[in-house]
Protein: Trehalose synthase
Amino acid sequence: MINDLWYKNAVIYSLNVGTFMDSNGDGIGDFVGLTRRLDYLHGIGIDAVWLQPFQPSPFRDDGYDVVDHYGVDPRHGSLGDFVEFTHAAKSRGIRVLIDLVVNHTSDEHPWFQSARRDPDSPYRDWYVWSEKKPKNANEGMVFPGVQETTWTWDDRAGAYYFHRFYEFQPDLNTSNPRVQAEILKIMGFWLQLGVSGFRMDAVPFIIGTKGPDVVKPVEQFDMLRTFREFIQWRQGDAVMLAEANILPEDDLDYFGTDGDRSHMMFNFQVNQNLFYALASAETKPLVQALKATKARPASGQWGQFLRNHDELDLGRLTEEQRNRVFAAFGPEEHMQLYHRGIRRRLAPMLGGDRRRLELAYSLMFTLPGTPVLRYGDEIGMGDDLSLPERNCARTPMQWSTEPQGGFTKGDKPVLPVVTGGPWGFETINVAAQRRDPNSLLNWTERMIRARHEAPEIGWGDYALVATRDPGVIALRYDWRGNSVLVVHNLHDAPREVRLRAGTPEGDRLIDLLGDGHSRAETDGRHRLVLEPYGYRWFRVGGLDYILNRQEI
Ligand code: GLC
Ligand code: CA
Structure:
């Protein structure tokens, strides 16, 4: 079982092929370039990559507007290059997850072109139409401030079409059995080419009912079960990682109480409250978010993340909490987006403060679930706020001090490389950090090693350990007779806490990251002195878990 559910104790790394490594000097990252960088990824110790869309696309939404679900955009290479890549990844033990974007297509997709041209087209029912303008056309936009409506008139079709996202992304009629069959076919195709699963884009919208009369979409959860059965039948180790920014009360519907729907989901609830905790040094809302999202089936797993390719969405915080995060991490209007989030990268949000970066990462690595890193965050890359919307945090990977940060030999990168100043490639790059044992890159590598060696976090159950300090959070993970205790001080000042590990062997704590081992005092409590933003990972009891661990 342990090795079958590989995602339970894994570290996932997300990247965009187009901005990772360009092999031929045309300024666009490609699969040949990415394949050459696999040893770098292997060296960091990650278990899986999640690739953002690389299929043929006009790239009006960074590839989330697909025109052919069965291809590789020629800018990134060929299907042959893709298979070479998945093969090379596999030989290094790295699994490949890809984005599956099937809530909508590009309006240039041949299906939509056929559907809009002819009411009798076999593809007409693949999209969602209305002859009259629906009453709720001005509601439910995902990109408020940029997107004006969810129903747009199409002259060629003589009807309005529905689009949850931008107007060039018509929604597929996902209730149509033919569309559902096509989705399975797409998944089957990529599984055959070597992927181990999918980051499913926009899941609540895929499974929600759509149409001009739909006031409140109803989720069709059976679809998730069908997807899961299909992919597991085709390939046993394949997983679905759902993007679903939902309320905790709906989590089990998405996982399936019997573990028969999504294997994994991103924990948006914890993500927002984590940023609130970092901004305010108040951990209570984070603890509440952890409790609210605790229940999940045995095979279900959270993906824990800090930043991703989208804005940091703070829509689920109270207005007061959100304002506090804005004030701390994105005070200026051009740092904010869609009236709900911050579009910056992590390192500039934290002022490049190494202590805070380590704290944030250490939390991400030790929250219940599987950590999902974003390319460039391992070296503390910055952003370029002169770029529109979310592109600011999607600039090319900074490899070296070579021109264009070593990303391309050409002089026209697909997005500008961050240049000059504290975040420029001249200062922040892989080559320099590789040589420096104290760099963020080498720190991240050590943390990933430590995280793998603490499978309790990925597999186990956690208990909150009282610290009596609202800014210091302590969690103990228990799994198969072993325990790990992690303590984080969110204050900008040192703190002393006294705590009980809470297990029979809990009078000894072995520091997993340094030599701050601890023995309990006579009252059974440990006295821990934490630096500002300090963190500790301990193994409880000091037993060597490798001796004690049972493989099943
Ligand atoms: C998801 C993606 C986002 C994209 C949108 C439309 O939210 O994360 O980047 O714009 O779906 O596909
Ligand atoms: Ca290229």
The two ends are 6 Å apart (CA to CA). The pocket of calcium ion (ligand 2) is lined by residues 22-24, 26, 28, 30 (CB under 6 Å). Residues 110-162 form a domain with the Oligo-1,6-glucosidase; domain 2 fold (CATH 3.90.400.10). The chain has a mean pLDDT of 96.
